[in-house]
Design the sequence.
């Protein structure tokens, strides 16, 4: 593709990452390509992809900005020119099943099983690895770590249930086409974790939470609205376990691990006298770079990658 064609195609899509892709795309190099939503998403996907493709192949991923931008790039692709199994798209499911809203599907579009990629990361296995590999508990007895991981699963369930009113309002907004920047909601305003146990901040009532999230998202709060049916929709078949916003449960994971470290002398009989030192300080801004690499490859993602990138590579004649 010559430079003029590249610029014309990129302008038609008007997404910067698509323009960069067109500039870098090679018909001969051993590279597969993909587009994701956010800037942290490559940290989750790249390691898994590299573990499945041959050593002499590489993956280039571009954050498009959001789901709509990813789909916009997909729709701009000329599939007569680009091999479809070589270029994949990765998007979050969000609450699409509950709105309901049909997400465009194709064999080279991966949609997370739960709300987002964070929902794939937050589990017992990742908690265990963070505690032993990052938080300094590598020498703690296995039975004690198992007990703490049991506590993690118990408190995570409590957190998911406690977050139901927030998720119910979000579901209500989406079903009624209310635009809200959910990043403005700070989940730490409602909850605190002490020695591994979830506590609700006593100053906040149910009405107080509703008022706060409406104010933060710049939506007029109507106290006459009953969201109980939306909570029921989330409780049905325990859907809240899959569809609580990923950034909220990722916050819980990090704060749980922080609280375990801060209260190590109380929680572990085999803990040394001083609090273990950490190899790196984790936060919600950098946490996915560390935790994402320590989560297990979801089966749905493995199958997707095998049917796309892996099949493309296998079918390509050796150079």
Sequence:
């Amino acid at each position: 593709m010559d430079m003029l064609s590249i610029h014309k195609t990129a302008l038609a899509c008007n997404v910067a990452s698509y323009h960069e892709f067109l500039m870098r795309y090679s018909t001969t190099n051993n590279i597969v390509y993909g587009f994701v939503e956010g800037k942290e998403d490559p940290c989750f996907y790249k390691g898994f992809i590299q573990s499945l493709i041959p050593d002499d192949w590489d993956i280039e991923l571009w954050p498009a900005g959001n789901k709509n931008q990813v789909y916009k790039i997909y729709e701009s692709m000329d599939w007569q020119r680009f091999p479809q199994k070589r270029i994949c798209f990765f998007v979050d499911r969000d609450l699409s099943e509950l709105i309901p809203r049909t997400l465009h599907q194709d064999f080279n579009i991966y949609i997370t099983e739960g709300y987002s990629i964070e929902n794939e990361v937050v589990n017992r296995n990742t908690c265990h690895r963070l505690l032993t590999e990052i938080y300094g508990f590598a020498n703690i007895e296995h039975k004690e770590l198992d007990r703490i991981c049991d506590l993690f699963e118990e408190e995570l369930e409590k957190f998911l249930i406690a977050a139901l009113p927030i998720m119910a309002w979000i579901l209500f907004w989406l079903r009624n086409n209310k635009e809200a920047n959910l990043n403005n909601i700070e989940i730490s305003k409602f909850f605190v974790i002490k020695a591994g146990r979830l506590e609700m901040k006593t100053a906040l009532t149910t009405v107080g939470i509703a008022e706060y999230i409406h104010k933060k998202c710049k939506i007029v709060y109507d106290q006459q609205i009953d969201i109980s049916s939306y909570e029921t929709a989330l409780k049905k078949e325990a859907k809240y376990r899959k569809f609580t916003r990923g950034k909220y449960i990722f916050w819980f994971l990090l704060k749980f691990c922080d609280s375990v470290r801060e209260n190590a002398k109380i929680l572990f009989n085999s803990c040394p006298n001083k609090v273990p030192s950490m190899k790196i300080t984790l936060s919600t801004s950098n946490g996915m770079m560390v935790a994402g690499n320590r989560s297990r490859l979801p089966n749905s993602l493995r199958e997707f990658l095998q049917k796309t990138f892996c099949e493309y590579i296998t079918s390509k004649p050796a150079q």
